[in-house]
Amino acid sequence: MKTDETVVVTGVTSGIGLACARILLKQGSKVIGIGRREDRLNALADEYHGSFHAINCDVRDSQTLNERINELPAKFAAIDKLVNAAGLLQGHGKLLDITDEHIQTMLDTNVHGLINVTRAVLPRLIAGGHGHVVNLSSIGAHVHYQGGHVYAASKAFVDHFGRCLRTELVGSRVRLTTIAPGKTRSEFALVQNNGDQVRADKVYSSLTPLEPEDVANAVVWALRQPTHVNINLIELTPADQELSYR
What we know:
Elements: E1 6-10, H1 15-26, E2 30-35, H2 38-47, E3 52-56, H3 62-70, E4 81-84, H4 100-127, E5 131-136, H5 149-169, E6 174-181, H6 188-192, H7 197-202, H8 212-224, E7 233-236
Parallel strand pairs: 1-2, 1-4, 2-3, 4-5, 5-6, 6-7
Helix pairs in contact: 1-8, 3-4, 4-5
């Protein structure tokens, strides 16, 4: 992977998205970061002056997203890679225990948001005659568990969407990789628990979770492969995470 490439990263203000952005920026890439928290975006722009371009936008808002992509300054206009890292889990318990709002937010973000960003960026990757899309899925796409229902199904969508899209991209010199991590320590659990740090910490109390950097290293490794190699899927979990359904 050339270090002077331009990479779009969603969910860039925390967790895996932020870890991906930091590694790429340290390697010399330019990053277009998409996120909802303007203060954090501005802090990244100040820290990586000239190499980081912020797009303060919700991935669910396709109109604004397309406008911002079309308004990119010349320095960032030629996009080489896309890392779809934005995603969330809301609510606890069985399907009947979560609200309509929880369901809508997860589907709009994890499914429609990923589609929105991919459709906005993909024409530039195809036009450039090269490129790479990395989609962040979850171990939940492959393992069924109680309480997974909508979230896990949304990540199964990400997995199958990527497999189908890759068939369309054959011949375009645009590659596609899906990364499916297990439990990863980040603000993900904090969002699920409405900012309750104590409840969020309990999510990781039974094991040593992955860190965002662990997943980001897998993302960057896939991006570094020679252009004739496509990494279809990387599945990584904490060494002590139990994956069987009980």
